[in-house]
Amino acid sequence: MKYEDILYEVENRIATLTFNLPESRNPISGERIIAEIEDVCREVRFSDDVSVLIVTGAGKAFSAGGNIKNMRERNQGSGGGPLHIQETYRRGIQRIPLAMDSVDVPIIGAINGAAIGAGCDTAMMCDMRIASTNAKFGETFLNLGLIPGDGGSWFLTRLIGYARMAELTFTGKVIDAEEALQLGMVSKVVEPGQLMPEARALAEVIAEKPPRTLRIAKLLMKQASRMELKDFLDVCAQSQAVAQNSSDHREAIEAFFDKRPAKFTGE
């Protein structure tokens, strides 16, 4: 697929997806960018050459979310009835959380600037987030008479808890990177020039791990929140049986005793 609204590259098992509409602060509500994000997630999921995905934005914003100009034009015209709008969300923006949730390698959000509305929610869909000091976060839907139709409440509640999520949602306030760090929305705040080097350094550490086992580990982490303990332990045992019989496991043990870096093949 030829990309127009994003940039995508892979180097040394690290994939990078960059929202690339800087002149409009990287809105992610259009059909084309949704399809392109969806395609990248599919590409990463089925590529044996990728172990980690970095998501960031071009220019000054990570993503300002929906396009308010388009909202105004829609309201002045015919936006369709409730059933039509409901189906529009299902066929549109809601494809992004489903696509990102399907990615079975770790996702690092490198939040370079404003992450507002759907942009904030997309950042929360990543497994880890590093923020620039220029980053700002806002769950601002209520300010526009809307709710997070992209499922952002599902991700944010699990990340920072109901009470903190409720305050951000009900006030619609925009917070800076330091407050986001205190709330647990990001794990680290760095100067703008250090954002991508920090994200890549983290990605490099992850990319050194056994590729297949890395994906199994992420799958288990996601299943843990959806399963009873006894059922989850059964899945852990099955997954460990696969990992323990892998060539990468044997290589890791030998490298440990040889005091050398392991060379993993994904086998």
Detailed description of the structure:
- With 267 residues, the protein is of the alpha/beta class.
- It folds into 2 domains: 6-207, 2-enoyl-CoA Hydratase, Chain A, domain 1 (Alpha-Beta Complex), CATH 3.90.226.10; 211-258.
- The chain contains 12 helices and 10 strands.
- A 6-stranded mixed sheet has the order 1-2-3-5-7-10, with helices on both faces. A 4-stranded mixed sheet has the order 4-6-8-9.
- A hairpin with a 2-residue loop joins strand 1 (6-11) and strand 2.
- Helix 5 (118-124) crosses helix 6 (152-160).
- The longest helix has 16 residues, at 229-244.
What's the arrangement of secondary structure elements?
Elements: E1 6-11, E2 14-19, H1 31-45, E3 52-57, E4 61-63, H2 68-76, H3 82-91, H4 95-102, E5 107-111, E6 114-116, H5 118-124, E7 128-132, E8 136-138, H6 152-160, H7 162-171, E9 174-176, H8 177-183, E10 188-190, H9 195-207, H10 211-224, H11 229-244, H12 247-258
Parallel strand pairs: 2-3, 3-5, 4-6, 5-7, 6-8, 7-10
Antiparallel strand pairs: 1-2, 8-9
Helix pairs in contact: 1-4, 5-6, 6-7, 10-11
